[in-house]
């Protein structure tokens, strides 16, 4: 029984990780409240979960706040850019939905294709900023390139990220349970699972020299 409840037992490791995810989720949600800070909050979340995926985490709360502050400017700029683009795409789709004939369908398909590239870029954008130092232009470009060059991983990450959202709104009961899970664990749990995949993806683009810091170089 002693070993079962020991600090190094699988149960205690699982409970410790669960507690970390709970704390991270609360921090993420608190920092998302002003809306404008969602990008910085997402980057801070992935900064910590990427380290968790590599078993490098130390002071989790301190690491979150440090990443939030150090990446605030670029994360906020790219978040606002993507937010505006998302609103424009949404409005364009609603407008073209009112069109009749072949031209309306063609325009809708074109917007859906653009929206697909937009979505996969968003999936990679904040994890990329969390791992690499780069400017706004190259962060956006590389997030898109990484998502295309690693398409099988991208599809899996998209399923992991988007499927729970659909499941949440499936029925009234799933909505009730879903809101509880999102509030306490959901965002951080998905970020952690995705980080296990991003770890493998980013490793291909990180410098191999021990003297080089991966956070100082992006794939331009």
Describe this structure in words.
The structure is a single chain. The protein is mainly alpha-helical and 220 residues long. It has eight helices and no strands. Helix 2 crosses helix 8 and helix 7 runs antiparallel to helix 8. The radius of gyration is 19 Å and the shape is globular. About 2% of the residues have low confidence.
- What gross morphology would you assign? globular
**Largest sheet, described in full?**
none
| Total DSSP E strands | 0
Computed Rg: 19 Å
What is the string of SSEs from the N terminus onward?
HHHHHHHH
Beta-strand residue percentage:
under 5%
Give the averaged pLDDT, no decimals. Answer: 89
| Continuous helix count | 8
Low-confidence segments, ≥5 residues, pLDDT <50? 210-214
Distance between the termini: 54 Å
Helix content: over 70%
Structural class: mainly alpha
Describe the SSE topology.
Blueprint: H1 10-32, H2 38-53, H3 60-70, H4 72-97, H5 102-131, H6 136-149, H7 151-168, H8 172-203
Quick gist of this model?
With 220 residues, this protein is mostly helical. It is built from 8 helices and no strands.
